[in-house]
Amino acid sequence: MKPRLLITRHLPDAVEARAARDYDATFSTDAAPVTADKLLEAASGHDGLLITGSDKMTAAVVERLPASVKIIATFSVGYEHIDVAACKARGIIATNTPDVLTDATADIALLLMLGASRRAYEGEQAVRTAAWKGWMPTQLLGIQVTGKRLGLYGMGRIGQATARRAKAFGMEIHYHNRRPIDPAIEKELGATYHATAESLLKVSDVLSLHAPAGPETNGFLNAERIELLPPKAIVVNTARGTLIDDDALISALKSGRLMAAGLDVFAGEPNIDPRYRSVTNSFLLPHLGSATLETRNAMGFRALDNLDRFFQGSEPGDRIA
Ligand code: 8YV
Q1: Pick from 170, 169, 167, 172: which is nearest to 150 by CA?
Q2: What's this model's pTM, rounded to 2 decimal places?
Q3: Which one is catalytic: 80, 269, 275, 319?
Q4: Is 240 a catalytic residue?
Q5: CA of 128 to the centre of ligand 1 (A)
Q6: Does one domain contain both 210 and 158?
Q7: Residue located nearest, by CA, to atom 5 of ligand 1
Q8: Where is the D-isomer specific 2-hydroxyacid dehydrogenase NAD-binding domain (predicted)?
Q9: Taking a C-beta distance cutoff of 8 angstroms, is the pair 56, 35 a contact?
Q10: Are 213 and 157 members of one domain?
């Protein structure tokens, strides 16, 4: 008998085809976020769950999961939506999908950085609304990233991949991380380690956030820390919206203390702080970091690899609980 797998979201065709071949799979047809009650109801009669970052596995939800559920595989690298301690307490295995989305997310960090520094939103608007009356030497002047200092807050896989790309743009790489990275990679990137976030902020012409969500990073970029950034700095966020104090960022963008921001993630998304919508010096995307077909296929396959291993009686590669 094939294991019974609940897949909470519609996934790319190739991933669903493999799941249908190897599992007694239940596919979600829901496009909208699934509520906890609906998810718990749907989980009944399943041995495993393939969820996404939008499905909140809080302690209260994990505690109410049917006893048949032995594994939760999330289609994401971030796993702050899963209460790992609650999973462990119930003996439920949990896995994530690291590595496979590193390049796609680093690409989006660069897109945001360039979109923000070159005023892409305002340019797009000018073209689309026919406000563009012709080329002018002083129209929509942005900031050139070449020669500027990129500060990476968090230097894991995605931070390093972003640094590699930024180096090719002629940027100087600075980073803060719990500990310095492999000296060989540091040398390759010509990267400078900062033992404190404050020291990093002071040199970051462009600040890019790459730390996970959690109590340690909640509200990290607040008014006090924004003040440490060089004048007219740019803020890029592909990590999690909770790292930013929205009040502080919005007022620094409006006052011109910051030149611009490029944001792919938001606190409370998709219900973002509505004030962002009218901030013209921001370049905003709807959480597209890993949104390429190649990457979403790879994430799905990686989640299925973890499930396969578990149901075949061996250790899944990407265990988080
Ligand atoms: C996902 C992400 O698209 O992997 C992550 O942590 O933020 C994104 O790549 C999202 O979490 C949906 O699962």
Answers
A1: 172
A2: 0.96
A3: 269
A4: yes
A5: 31
A6: yes
A7: 76
A8: 111-289
A9: no
A10: yes
